[in-house]
Amino acid sequence: MKDTQAQVQLHTCNGLTSCVHTYTLCFLFISVLGNFELRTFHNFKTPRAALDGTNQETSTPVFVEEEEEDKHQPSEDIRRSVEVLKNAAKTRKVAAEEILSAFKILEKAKLDPSGFLDTLGGTESPGRTWMLVFTAKKQLDGGKYFPITAIQRFDAVGKRIENGVYLGPLGWLTFEGRLSWKKRILAFMFERLRIKIGPFSPFDINIKGKDESEPSTKNPFFIWFYIDEEIAVARGRSGGTAFWCRCRHVESY
Quick check: keyword Transmembrane in the entry (predicted)? Predict the structure, then answer.
């Protein structure tokens, strides 16, 4: 898969300063947070995405509300929906209507989330990175492929989250903080902002408040409907739904 704005690898089959560039970065990133609450990152270099040929075993979701003899096998509708999203992640040519339909099927399936966190955030720090592919409006009233590079990192062991957007030579903007997990809900709060502008060194801004409590649904959160080794689907607190593809080959500028 080739994408002019990111260099990643898809596993097998996927709410500052006076500088103009900084304002550009902040505007784009805040738009993401406001509309879809999609967050995270780990130093990433733009240009293109390629299919990962590594042979990895994909985790198999199971039903919560199926007959005993069938509960370990997802339905054909779910299989087709997952393939639609994986194809969309690789080609970015699948129609939005097909992706929205796949979202509906996966949300209604009520898959067992018991293995979601380990798949999303890995079993050791610094966790796993995922690239945002597609975002949908509230109630799935339309959607589109995300036009810029946005990378999220989830660390299940360290209970950390990092989110960023990357604009090639213009620079990047990331937020980092802590997360919590309960059933299928991942809540989080950010503590640090990092900004890089052009060729200059990045600088940090501490945005940590006095609240030391564990993140909860009073904070931003995601509700996860589907996660395997290649793609992940979730809805944010504001009601927007999105999906990511697993990515790696993370590099600094």
Answer: yes
Q: Give which of 242, 228, 235, 187 is closest to 62, Cα–Cα.
A: 228
Tell me whether strands 185-197 and 231-236 are parallel, antiparallel or unpaired.
unpaired
- The three-point CA angle 47-50-8 to 5° equals 55
Beta bridge partners of 195: 173, 203
For residue 38, give both structure tokens.
Answer: 């999609």
Residue 22 vs residues 25, 34, 68, 236: alpha-carbon distances, Å: 5, 18, 55, 25
Considering the chain, what percentage of its residues have pLDDT values greater than 70?
A: 69
Residues in the chain: 253
In the chain, % of residues over pLDDT 90: 66
What one-character DSSP code corresponds to residue 168? G
Return the closest-CA partner of residue 136 out of 224, 32, 28, 240: 240
Is the full-model pTM beyond 0.85? no
Give the separation between CA 133 and CA 88, rounded to whole angstroms.
8
Mean pLDDT, residues 130-136 taken together: 98
